[in-house]
């Protein structure tokens, strides 16, 4: 089971059902959230001498803030709590109890008394998923002031002012870190909001995935623990035929790197046999750099012997629409379409209906526009992707941070692995090779995308750890085998 991403409106009902099931109080759950935050805090090793300012609203997000302030105070940190509400405001019941539990020494001052030129750490517990309507004037002022703070800002559950399921319209807190509870709120995964959310951490507050079952949502969050269930098991007697024979159609004059990267990635992901369809004039470069790959110079008449086909990286455009057509005519199993193949589909929409059902298209945002048209934002993009997948019975991987796997049945799965060090030429070619390889090993399109996308991100993390912005696509390939080790996949 994968973690469901619910809407902000569903959170109250989820919490209420959880509290009932576990026979605890909502106050216990708030304490659990605060304790989870403290665990994350400890993992960060923030400077013990740094002053900490906790900005609290009157709702349960503020309640989290009071509890966090108490726990940090007990651990010896220098805390001051600031209230973002007037004296006459009634606190939510749990916030009120946590307010009363605050030690006398760190009792509240009003946010207006705070000098935003201060340094240190500001914990933003002003507004959480209970944000509704348009921000009131004072709230706008508070948020703009928080954004003028010179130190680090940590938002609890969600940056205050960011709607949990929609695009930001007004102002919201710009956080360096967002520590969110139970599941990532949908809007935290939109690229447009990256500037506001900062680094994202997910804190488990003890709600099991089964407890999400009664709640409808097409969105899921893919984590490390989900991956092994999608993998095939091999036996001692497995032979190379069991690991699949794939065809990678990639590269052209001047772009043979794309073919090398995709083909090598397929091998490193476990394919038994990798054939590359390339221009004959370019054979030396690939045969020298990846001797394990066999080269073809013309599309074979019979394609049925291939367990999977991946097409697109660096193929160029000359006569390639015809190539796509021939592939679609000669092959009826799901294939992987990337890069130039996607651009060609944008120019030849009449080909969309001929793509084998269940195939996987892996566009980055620009390529996405070429087949699905312009979108104003990620929310709209997800909607268009869902309609497209259902209409054509195809799957999409919308690439980027938190790549989204869009399935033909409408489910959309956000990936959690990866690093910005992967924003480097050729890393998409690596993904094409990996997904094609899993498809060829007999994985369903869903399993191939899930394992491919997650492990691609994990390989990027492994490669990026030591090489940071010096990471190149070949480093990601070199790290693929280590991903099987980390996931304990034999
Ligand atoms: N038992 C629970 O329900 C739990 C809730 N938790 C926390 O509770 C939060 C949700 O709490 P609530 O539902 O009380 O809501 P919030 O505390 O997120 O939001 C309500 C507060 O925001 C203000 N606000 C809302 N819309 C506004 C607007 N347009 N302009 C200005 N101010 C506005 C309200 O006046 C109120 O003070 C979560 O984000 C999470 O941080 C966690 O403690 C986990 C357990
Ligand atoms: N900031 C990021 N965080 C995580 N992954 C990223 C990030 N930027 C890029 N990636 C990943 O790197 C790959 C880039 O693919 P693509 O844009 O096709 O590159 P190229 O065309 O150079 O091969 C995608 O899989 C994408 O998810
Ligand atoms: K907040």
UniProtKB/TrEMBL annotation:
Which Gene3D superfamilies is this protein grouped with? 3.40.1190.20, YjeF N-terminal domain
Q: Which reaction does it catalyse?
A: (6R)-NADPHX = (6S)-NADPHX; (6S)-NADHX + ADP = AMP + phosphate + NADH + H(+); (6R)-NADHX = (6S)-NADHX; (6S)-NADPHX + ADP = AMP + phosphate + NADPH + H(+)
EC number(s) of the enzyme? Answer: 4.2.1.136, 5.1.99.6
Binding-site residues for AMP, renumbered to this chain = 399-403, 428
Q: Where is the YjeF C-terminal domain?
A: 223-487
Give the domain of life: Bacteria
- Pfam families the UniProt entry points to: Carb_kinase, YjeF_N
Binding of K(+) occurs at 61, 124, 160
Q: Give yes or no: UniProt keyword Metal-binding.
A: yes
Q: Which InterPro entries match?
A: Carbohydrate_kinase_pred_CS (IPR017953), CARKD (IPR000631), Nnr (IPR030677), Ribokinase-like (IPR029056), YjeF_N_dom (IPR004443), YjeF_N_dom_sf (IPR036652)
Keyword annotations for this protein, in alphabetical order, are: ATP-binding, Isomerase, Lyase, Metal-binding, Multifunctional enzyme, NAD, NADP, Nucleotide-binding, Potassium
* Domain YjeF N-terminal positions: 11-213
Its GO biological process annotations read:
metabolite repair; nicotinamide nucleotide metabolic process
Which NCBIfam families does the annotation name?
yjeF_cterm (TIGR00196), yjeF_nterm (TIGR00197)
Task: Describe the protein's quaternary organization and the partners it interacts with.
Answer: Homotetramer.
Its annotated function is as follows: Catalyzes the dehydration of the S-form of NAD(P)HX at the expense of ADP, which is converted to AMP. Together with NAD(P)HX epimerase, which catalyzes the epimerization of the S- and R-forms, the enzyme allows the repair of both epimers of NAD(P)HX, a damaged form of NAD(P)H that is a result of enzymatic or heat-dependent hydration. Catalyzes the epimerization of the S- and R-forms of NAD(P)HX, a damaged form of NAD(P)H that is a result of enzymatic or heat-dependent hydration. This is a prerequisite for the S-specific NAD(P)H-hydrate dehydratase to allow the repair of both epimers of NAD(P)HX.
Q: HAMAP family from the entry?
A: NADHX_dehydratase, NADHX_epimerase
Q: In its UniProt entry, what is this protein called?
A: Bifunctional NAD(P)H-hydrate repair enzyme
Task: Please tell me the species this chain comes from.
Answer: Algoriphagus alkaliphilus
What's the source species' lineage? Answer: Bacteria, Pseudomonadati, Bacteroidota, Cytophagia, Cytophagales
